[in-house]
Design brief:
Strand content: 25-35%
Number of domains: 1
Shape: globular
Distance between the termini: 58 Å
Structural class: alpha+beta
CATH class: Mainly Beta
Helix content: 10-25%
Length: 478
C-alpha cells in the first residue's frame, strides 16, 4: 500500500470503518458456468428482486435470472434467457421496472425481456422487443436514469443508438463521434448528458439530443489499455485507466473544462481493467478490477486531495465480474451501504459492505433520500427536450415502500403494449369516442395487439430456426 494513502486514512469520515464481508457459502449461488467471453463488462446485473448473470451457452448467448433468495446450488437444467444467437456481452436492469432487463450481444441486436414476477419456470426465448440497428456486436446497454423506456446501446461499429423501447424505434444515432471502440458510456444524474471513454484515449461529454460533443479530453490516461469514465452527482467526471508505464490510475475532472484533472492518483501495476461503481448518496466510488481479488473504495469530497482512499476489501479468489445492488435493495437495519455480487469461475458470491453502528435506530446520515423506481419523465418528453432529476424516496421504511412502488410501476409499464406506435395512432380516436364504445375499442385493440405480438414472435422464432438450419446445411455441404 502506498504511504500517501495511509496518511490520508486519518481524515475524519463516517465511512472510514466501512466493513466488507463475504456471505456464508450457503448464501452463494453455486455451480454457475460464468461466461468466458473476452469483453470487459461486469457480466452481472442486480436489482431488489433478481440477480442476472451472463453464462456460457452452446449455440448462442444466454444469461441466468435468479430470484435473490434462490441461493445454493443451481441446477444445470435451470431455465435461462436464451434468445440471442451470439454470446451476450452486457445486461442491464431497467431502473423503473424490476421485471425488465435489456441485453446486448455479438449477434448485433439488443433485446428487452420481461421476467415473470416469481422468476423463470421455463426458458425464455421470446423478448418483448428486438432492437436492430447496429452492424457489429453490441457491447454496452444502459437505461436512462430518469426517463421511462429510454435505452442506450453502444456497439463495436463505434456508434451509440438511443431507443424508445415502447415503440421499438431508434430515435438518436451518434455515429461520427467515435473513431474507435467505445469502452464505456455513462449517463449524467438527470440523463441530459453522456460521458464516454474510447479506444482513441479520449473522454467525451456529449449532449445526445443536440447530437454534439460538449467537451472532450485527449489522452485522459496515456496508457493503451481500456479506460472507464462515469458521471458523478455533482457533474464532475471520474475516470480509471492506465499510465504510459502501465500503472493503473484514477482521475477526477470538471465536466465543463477538462484541460487539467482536479486530481490524478497512481494505484498499482496490475493489468485488470478497473470497473467503477458509484454511490451518489454517499459519494463513494468502489473500484473492482477484473481478475483482482479486491474491492477498493474511495470517498470523493470538495477538499484536497478530493479522492480519499478509505479501505480495501480483499479475498483469495479473483473476480470474473461484479454486480452492484441499487440502494433500495439494501438492508438498512444492518447499516448496509453497498452490496456486490462477485462472480467466480463457477459461482456468484454476495459481498456486503456495512458501517458498524451500535444504535438500532434508522441511520439517516448513511441513508439520505435515494433514487426510487418511479420515472420522472416519459420517453416522448425526454426526446422532446425535457429534463427531470431522479424522484427520491426515503429508505426509512426499508424494503416495504419499494415493493408498493414496484407494483405501480409494473402496472403502468408500456412494454406490455408493444408495438406502441399502433396504440398511439388509435389514441386520439379513443379520446373522442363515447365512453362505452371507447372501452370496447380498447378491448379490441388489446386483443389485436396481443395477436399481433404472438404472430410477430412466432415469425422471429421461425426466422431463427431457418437461419440455424441453413447454417447446419451449409456445414454438411462442406
Amino acid at each position: 500500500m502506498f504511504p500517501d494513502m495511509l496518511r490520508r486514512v486519518v481524515r475524519q469520515s463516517k465511512f472510514r470503518h466501512v466493513f466488507g464481508q463475504a456471505v456464508r457459502n450457503d448464501q452463494c449461488y453455486d455451480d454457475i458456468r460464468v461466461s468466458r467471453v473476452t469483453w470487459d463488462s461486469s457480466f452481472c446485473a442486480v436489482n431488489p428482486k433478481f440477480v442476472a448473470i451472463i453464462i456460457e451457452a452452446s449455440g448462442g448467448g444466454a444469461f441466468l435470472v435468479l430470484p435473490l433468495q434462490k441461493t445454493g446450488r443451481i441446477d444445470k437444467a435451470y431455465p435461462t434467457v436464451c434468445g440471442h444467437t451470439g454470446p451476450v456481452l452486457d445486461i442491464d436492469w431497467c431502473p423503473h421496472n424490476d421485471l425488465v432487463i435489456a441485453s446486448g450481444s455479438e449477434d448485433c441486436t439488443v433485446m428487452v425481456w420481461q421476467i415473470p414476477e416469481n422468476g423463470l419456470e421455463t426458458a425464455l426465448s421470446e423478448p418483448v422487443v428486438v432492437l436492430e440497428g447496429h452492424s457489429k456486436r453490441v457491447g454496452i446497454v444502459s437505461w436512462h436514469p430518469t426517463a421511462r423506456n429510454v435505452l442506450l446501446s453502444a456497439g463495436c461499429d463505434n456508434q451509440i443508438i438511443i431507443w424508445n423501447v415502447g415503440t421499438g424505434e431508434a430515435m438518436i444515432n451518434l455515429e461520427d463521434m467515435h473513431p474507435d471502440v467505445i469502452f464505456s458510456v455513462s449517463w449524467s444524474r438527470n440523463g441530459n448528458l453522456l460521458c464516454t471513454a474510447c479506444k482513441d484515449k479520449k473522454v467525451r461529454v456529449i449532449d445526445p439530443r443536440k447530437r454534439k460533443i460538449v467537451t472532450e479530453k485527449d489522452k485522459a490516461h496515456e496508457g493503451a489499455r481500456p479506460m472507464r469514465a462515469i458521471f458523478l452527482a455533482d457533474g464532475n467526471i471520474f475516470t480509471t485507466g492506465f499510465s504510459r508505464m502501465s500503472e493503473r490510475q484514477l482521475a477526477l475532472w470538471k465536466s465543463d473544462n477538462m484541460d487539467e484533472p482536479i486530481c490524478v492518483q497512481e494505484m498499482d501495476t496490475s493489468n485488470g481493467v478497473l470497473l467503477p461503481f458509484y454511490d451518489p448518496d454517499t459519494s463513494i466510488v468502489y473500484l473492482c478490477g477484473k481478475g483482482d481479488s479486491s474491492i477498493r473504495y474511495f470517498e470523493i469530497t470538495d477538499e484536497a486531495p478530493f479522492v480519499h482512499y478509505l479501505n480495501t476489501f480483499s479475498t483469495k479468489e479473483p473476480q470474473r465480474g461484479m454486480g452492484y445492488m441499487p440502494k433500495r435493495g439494501l438492508d438498512v437495519n444492518k447499516c448496509e451501504i453497498a452490496r456486490f455480487y462477485k462472480l467466480h469461475e463457477r459461482k456468484c458470491e454476495p459481498v456486503i459492505m456495512t458501517v458498524p453502528r451500535k444504535s438500532d435506530l434508522f441511520q439517516d446520515d448513511l441513508y439520505p433520500d435515494t433514487a426510487g423506481p418511479d420515472p420522472a419523465l416519459e420517453a416522448e418528453e425526454w426526446f422532446a427536450g425535457r429534463n427531470g432529476g431522479p424522484i427520491l424516496i426515503s429508505l426509512k421504511d426499508g424494503y416495504v415502500s419499494t415493493k408498493n412502488r414496484d407494483l405501480k410501476v409494473v402496472k403502468k409499464n408500456v412494454l406490455e403494449t408493444k408495438p406502441a406506435t399502433k396504440a398511439e395512432n388509435v389514441s386520439p380516436v379513443q379520446k373522442r369516442a363515447p365512453p362505452q364504445s371507447s372501452v370496447k375499442m380498447e378491448d379490441k385493440l388489446d386483443e389485436v395487439l396481443r395477436e399481433f405480438k404472438s404472430l410477430r414472435d412466432r415469425v422471429i422464432l421461425q426466422d431463427r430456426r431457418i437461419a440455424r438450419l441453413e447454417e447446419q446445411v451449409a456445414k454438411v455441404a462442406l
